[in-house]
Amino acid sequence: MKATAEKVEKNTVVLEVEVEPEKFSEAMNQAYRKIVKKVSIPGFRKGKAPRIILERYLGKQALYDEAVEIIIPDAYISAVEDTGIEPVAQPELEVIQLEEGKPVVFKAKVVVKPEVNLGQYTDLEIVNPGSEVADEEIQQEVERLRNRHAKLINLEEGTVEVGDLAAIDFEGKTDGIPFEGGTAGDYSLEIGSGSFIPGFEDQIVGMNINETRDINVTFPQDYGKEDLAGKEAVFTVTVKSIRRKELASLDDEFAKDVSEFDTLEELRADLANKLKQAAEEKAKAQIHRDVVSRVVENAQVEVPREMIDSRMEEMIRNMNQRLSGQGISLEKYLTYTNSNMDDLKERVRPDAEQSVLQSLVIDAVAKAENLTVGDEEISEEINRMGVEMKQDPEVVRKILEGQNQLEFIKESLLRDKAVQYLVYRAVLVEGTNQPEKE
Which residue ranges form the domains of the chain, and what is each CATH number? Predict the structure, then answer.
């Protein structure tokens, strides 16, 4: 087989492939054996008609068409490997010559992975956001823990305060007409949680048990239901009951009740350590994002539309899976958000384009620095996945192999390694140290 590649546009290549006559002859024989089993020809048992009779009965073109389906896919794959191109979309095929006794010649026009011109990607100055934890943050965490374990006391009398759990009946109207979803009874609302329309909870503060009040609010412009977005509404609200949190004293007994520690000091130290770890992870993630953003910004690449469309479809499939896990179909989601599939595609397109752009640039860095991922690293990742999934690593490997996902795992590990390299080569400023070299 012979194959040549000619670049005809910026990211488009035309392959011209020539397949030996002998291979085409074998493909014709395979086509005959496949078709003859499906055709009933008078005077012959099914599957037993000679090839010459089958050709007269159906026409030789039927065998040609089937032989093309047999020979071209494998020939195309071989041509891609031989020429070293990296297709990112399905090819447009054109058969140039198709005749027994002669080479099969076809052309394949295909969009390929674009070239990336890397700008500066090492020695970039990146601001380290730091990971120090202030005493105020520790105290806020203590207070959150304190609120989580607070006792709820039913009030016999009194008025609603911020932090209370109020059971309310309400009916909402716009232009004097009740609207769907605007009515509820014995609804438990934590005042100050911000879970209702802005201004709603503030106006309940100060209400007495069994008091009824009209509350005026305006729906946000970006409210999920388009027919209510930006509209004024009046809610008639009745407070049925009030439950108030009774906070425990901050002492050693509190620490014993809510944790495995014997003293409040030990509890504070543990919270401080966890906050420190979280802050370090957050800072590390921010540094990674900033480094990658700068490297992408410095690079030049024209992203093919086909790659963006493919990533966009992938994102929508992932979104569909997440929604299904919550018991919501994509169709229902689109109905709830008053949108359609075209709207959804336009919303995710910018993120899809940025995702593809980032992948291309990171891949180019890995190539420029000759970074590789070995079999041992892939095995380590599969072992990690096995622990996470509580599965035997060999079972995980077989699942991945069955789904043709091993190459994806390798690609992900290589990109992670490239990002680690970029962080390693970055210069952190603002008086902080460089990141630990991995």
Answer: 2-111 (3.30.70.1050), 151-246 (3.10.50.40), 278-429 (1.10.3120.10)
